[in-house]
């Protein structure tokens, strides 16, 4: 199982990466192992209450008896020193913390997070096939 956040790699320059555990419920683990999740638009919230994954979508498992909100906030399992260090870097250098990918490590499900800076896109022209001029010389 490998679920990547392609928009993060495209729109941001990743400066540092870190592996984090995630507090999940049983049906969420089964959906993740089936590859039914999406990290588009998800963010990492660093605060006094801990580190949380916000906005990630994990599809509901069809055979589950309990209903879980697919976009609920999920706690990340990090050392206090790591989270405090990243929080300070984020505030001082105006960086963003993003989820990059879900993956299996032995029997555990891990989330790779990255400290990133938004890429500056200058002079990139939009592709529009109708307005192209063809010259015959």
Structure write-up:
The protein has one domain: Small protein B (Small Protein B, Chain: A). The longest helix is centred in the middle third of the chain and has 14 residues, at 80-93. With 137 residues, it is of the alpha+beta class. The mean pLDDT is 85. Helices cover 20% and strands 39% of the residues. The strands form 2 sheets. A 7-stranded antiparallel β-sheet has the order 1-8-9-2-7-5-4. Strands 3-6 form a two-stranded antiparallel sheet.
Inertia-based shape = globular
Q: Give the count of structural domains.
A: 1
CATH fold node name? Small Protein B, Chain: A
One letter per element, helices H and strands E, the order comes to EHEHEEEEEHEE
The number of helical runs is 3
- Give unreliable regions as ranges: none
The proportion of residues in beta strands is: 35-45%
Quaternary status: single chain
Mind telling me the CATH class? Mainly Beta
CATH-level-4 superfamily name: Small protein B
How many individual β-strands? 9
Give average pLDDT, whole number: 85
The portion of residues assigned to helices is 10-25%
Structural class: alpha+beta
CATH architecture descriptor: Beta Barrel
The largest β sheet comes out as: 7 strands, antiparallel
Strands ordered across the widest β-sheet: 1-8-9-2-7-5-4
C-alpha termini separation: 54 Å
Topology:
Layout: E1 2-4, H1 6-11, E2 12-22, H2 26-33, E3 37-38, E4 43-47, E5 50-54, E6 57-58, E7 74-77, H3 80-93, E8 96-105, E9 108-118
Antiparallel strand pairs: 1-8, 2-7, 2-9, 3-6, 4-5, 5-7, 8-9
